[in-house]
Amino acid sequence: MNYYAIKAIYTFEMARWWRTVTQSIISPVVSTSLYFVVFGAAIGSRIESVEGVSYAAFIVPGLIMLSLLQQSLSNASFGIYFPKFAGTVYEILTAPISHVETVIAFVGAAATKSVILALIILLTASFFVDLQIQHPIWMVAFMVLTAVTFSLIGFIIGIWADGFEKLQLIPLLIVTPLAFLGGTFYSITMLPETWQNIALLNPVVYLVSGFRWSFYGVADVDVGISLGMTLVFMAISLAIITWIFRTGYKLRA
User: Fold this and answer.
1) Which end of the chain has less neighbouring CB within 10 Å, N or C?
2) Domain named ABC transmembrane type-2: which ranges (predicted)?
3) Tens digit of pLDDT for each residue in 240-253?
4) Residue 150 to residue 17: CA distance in whole angstroms
């Protein structure tokens, strides 16, 4: 394992993130705080509780997960896309670093950034609502697994995209709507039965449900299924990345 190469790419990616702290940290924290104010204070004052949890506290795991998904995709996709755009990706591909090590470096940096941001948002949320974390180890586990999985998906998007417009296409048109419809602001048990069954086709439901369970012990679907679905998404993403490096898809001129 070429640890020096992994460390070099990882350090470079983290340094780039810290250089844009306003965009990469302050902006998403402020945006999420506005959700707490609008949905937690304004709407929460009209909804007493959901499944025994105050509405303001109920939406916190969903909002953290929403930010985690968006930032993981954004960090990983831009991280690999920019070397393609600048033409320096060929230096990485010809350097003495394996494909596995390349993925570990880029995805590891993207996941680290997302987890740090999620923890900052969690700390910020504690100033707005009274939070409970019944299963802290599982909370961290779901956070890390989701960050890694969506960083892998973001890595795929970054390789697939051949322009900045495509870089934003899937996150804006697919992932964000799925996140909003995935139980971020409500429990799917509040929906009519037909819509509950349709909602179960949304993969984000399982992520939000499992993450919310780690806070309050309540979930829309069994936590074991949530964990299993997260691992399935990760396995699919790894299979696609393996295929990309084997075939050179979008990497070879």
Assistant:
1) C
2) 19-248
3) 988 988 887 777 65
4) 18
**Sequence-ordered list of residues with C-beta below 8 angstroms from that of 226, at least 6 positions apart, any chain:** 142, 206, 207, 209, 210, 213, 219
Region 36-64 average pLDDT: 79
d(CA 102, CA 6): 7
Beta bridge partners of 53: 50
Q: Which phi and psi (to 5°) does residue 127 adopt? A: -80, -20
Mean pLDDT, the chain, whole residue set: 86
Cβ(92)–Cβ(83) below 8 Å: yes
Burial class (CB in 10 A: 0-12, 13-18, 19+), 19: exposed
Nearest residue to 203 (alpha-carbon basis) of 150, 138, 129, 125: 150
Beta-carbon contacts of residue 181 (< 8 Å; ≥ 6 apart): 199, 202, 204
Query: pTM of whole model > 0.85?
Result: yes
Q: How many CB atoms lie within 10 A of CB 83?
A: 17
pLDDT of 151 reads: 92
- Alpha helix ranges (H) inside 171-250: 176-180, 193-199, 203-216, 223-247
Which structure tokens are listed for 174? 């697919």
Three-class SS state of 3: helix
Which amino acid appears at position 156 of this protein? I
Q: Exposed/middle/buried for 22, CB within 10 Å: 0-12, 13-18, 19+? A: exposed
Contact 120, 30 (CB under 8 A): no
Nearest to 132 by CA among 218, 198, 210, 199: 218
